[in-house]
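Notebook entry, structure prediction.
Reason for the run: the old model in the group folder had no record of what sequence produced it. Starting over properly, with the input documented here first.
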Amino acid sequence: MLQLARQLVRHQAFSRSVAALAGVWGVALLLGAAGGAQDVMRPLGVFTGGVAPSQGVESAHGFVGFSEPADLDRELAAAKAAGQWVLVDYYADWCVSCKVMEKEVFGDAQVQAALTGVRILRPDVTQTDPSSRELLNRYQVMGPPTLLFIGPDGEERRIQRITGEVDAIQFLSRWNETMERG
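New structure, fully documented this time:
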């Protein structure tokens, strides 16, 4: 009888520990969902500062991030001088679609291969300030996510612009169409 009582106490302690861990995990999932997290294995990852690269530094997918209009001008001038295509990806930390596209579109191997040799710029318009407004107004962008394709001549291929969330297949279709039109 004593042995049965001990087993019952151990079982209750184990059950309480599991319940406490499940409760903590549930709270983390709720907080992550409220913050726009998409990865159940990293529910609080959305609170680690976003996926925007540091100013003027390339990210894992080759994006050069910045938040000043002068940086955009400098990067576009360098691309034009090099005869290089430019992809401009307007981004904000609060933009859930931007984060989905970072993972599902720009993390796609076919997309990465298609963008080889392309200068990829990421103006960060997270803050509501004069710099962000100027970056948005430069090409009459309503907000992120917006993707611009700028040719080696420095001109945007406006008809090919993508506004809103797309998947890798849609992106590649638009990119390939842009390349065909030149």
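Summary: The chain has two domains: 2-47, 63-181.
The old model has been moved to the deprecated folder.
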